[in-house]
Write a structure and sequence with these properties.
about 475 residues, alpha/beta, 11-stranded mixed β-sheet, 16 helices, about 40% helix
């Protein structure tokens, strides 16, 4: 029963709270939803398999009459008058929204360090000097699932923001194809990349939740793909499945433990009857710089609305400013964090009249090349059904390590997740091993063709079972 499930989660919610994963706890709302779910169950009118499951929602999705901060001082006190489409769909099927989760400000970050509410810590290492990060930008969502305070979490993935924290926290992170689910009610970071995603403890649950929130939406012109209903079966065979191993993903930064986990995944595929082939994606090295040029350009445009007049918090003393420009500058200086300011300025620079062709237009050309690389691999000979790669270079770094990394070192952590985002492809991260030195989880990423989520989920389910069996030995 939902109410009993909610009570049982109280200790886990306390753990998530200590990790700074939760920004708004919805006790009354969740209790009412749980009671309604239990009443339906007693009448034999349950709404389906999701009815009564516990959900947390990343705090860049709007929920009517619930504060939405996007991890920013700029939206302090903002209470939206409407609910995001994906949240509406999940709650309409009986899911119980427990809390809203912490995130990097407006989704801009790799380690969930850049939030006005403070960093999110790893549930498995959140105390003392050895505290580790949960990953970003959906770090609060991943930490909440890993701590056990929900059956699933709603996150957003721009260049790995669901998959990377899922890998660090040892949970499943599922990014469907771009356009599969509505972005209405999701605060925009980079509009041609932002994708609602799901974090959960199992592939089957993640698939069921993603199915429930999928489908076209008249409020979002980019949500044009049909709703999905595929949930993989337990004991999936991989007979007839060809898996590609992209050689360009074997980067120097990949840890020894990560290399072993990747090789083990190849063996698991073969044990399930699948075929493994080496493939090449020659423009992979250009994907990361192209991604950042494009997303920062889009961010500079999307952030322009937060001027303290129409959107965002007006700075103190704004009425004393001599010009509108001074008032807007004061509003942004007093509310945007350093990471957002840096990205907005860089994005505006790349869109300037004299540099547009050299930076933004060139990055768009690289994006097309990356898409073409994937097209050749998935449509070539032999035809590859999915790709398997690491999700991250290693396990979650310590808080101290993350805070002292250079900008280039930080951005390099997205090297495996960004290419699929450039092409709008479905990609999932599942637990796929542990780091030899720390015992912390490592992630495996499965990437498929746009619109073909079922192949990704089928392979993910098989590898999830193989990983569980190997851990039980």
């Amino acid at each position: 029963m939902a109410a009993a499930r909610l009570r049982a989660a109280s200790a886990s919610i306390a753990t998530a709270r200590r990790c700074n994963a939760l920004v708004t706890e919805l006790h009354g709302r969740a209790a009412a939803q749980a009671a309604a779910s239990d009443a339906r169950a007693e009448r034999g009118e349950a709404l389906g398999p999701l009815d009564g499951l516990l959900l947390t929602v990343k705090d860049n999705f709007c929920i009517e009459n619930v504060p939405t901060s996007c991890g920013s001082k700029g939206l302090e006190g903002f209470v939206p008058p409407y609910t995001a489409t994906v949240v509406q769909k999940l709650e309409a099927l009986g899911m119980v929204t427990v809390a809203k989760t912490n995130l990097d400000e407006f989704g801009m970050g790799t380690f969930n360090l850049h939030s006005a509410a403070g960093p999110v810590l790893h549930p498995g290492a959140h105390e003392g000097g050895g505290a580790r990060v949960a990953g970003g930008s959906s770090g609060g969502a991943a930490a909440a699932v890993a701590a056990g305070c929900g059956d699933a979490a709603l996150g957003s993935d721009t260049g790995g923001s669901v998959r990377l924290p899922a890998a660090y926290c040892g949970v499943v992170g599922w990014k469907p194809s771009y356009g599969r689910s509505s972005r209405y009610g999701l605060a925009a970071y980079a509009s041609s990349f932002d994708t609602p995603g799901v974090l959960s403890t199992s592939v089957r649950t993640a698939a069921a939740v993603a199915n429930a929130m999928s489908g076209p939406d008249p409020a979002d012109a980019t949500a044009r793909l049909a709703a999905t209903d595929y949930v993989p079966e337990v004991g999936e065979s991989l007979d007839g499945v060809t898996v590609g191993i992209p050689q360009e993903y074997l980067v120097e930064e990949l840890s020894a433990s990560g290399r072993r986990a990747w090789a083990e995944a190849e063996r698991w595929v073969q044990d399930r009857g699948g075929r493994v082939v080496a493939v090449s994606l020659p423009h992979t090295s250009a994907a990361l710089p192209a991604y950042y040029l494009l997303t920062l350009a889009e961010a500079s445009s999307n952030m322009a609305r937060y001027d303290g007049v129409e959107y965002g918090r007006r700075a103190r003393g704004a009425d004393e400013c001599g010009t509108v420009e001074e008032m807007i500058t004061a509003a942004r200086d007093g509310t945007f964090g350093s990471e957002v300011r840096k990205r907005v300025l860089t994005g505006a620079f790349t869109l300037s009249r004299t540099l547009y062709d050299s930076y933004y237009a060139q990055a768009q050309r690289v994006r097309r090349m990356v898409c073409d690389d994937f097209g050749r691999v998935f449509g070539g000979e032999p035809a590859v059904d999915v790709l398997i790669t690491p999700t991250a270079c290693g396990n979650a770094p310590t808080l101290a390590e993350a805070q002292t990394m250079s900008q280039l070192e930080t951005l390099a952590n997205d090297v495996f997740t960004v290419p699929a985002s450039l092409a709008g492809l479905p990609a999932i991260s599942i637990p796929g091993g542990v780091d030899d030195g720390t015992g912390l989880p490592l992630g495996l990423q499965i990437i498929g063709t746009r619109g073909n989520e079922s192949s990704v989920l089928r392979v993910a389910q098989a590898l999830e079972e193989e990983h569980a069996a190997s851990r039980a030995l």
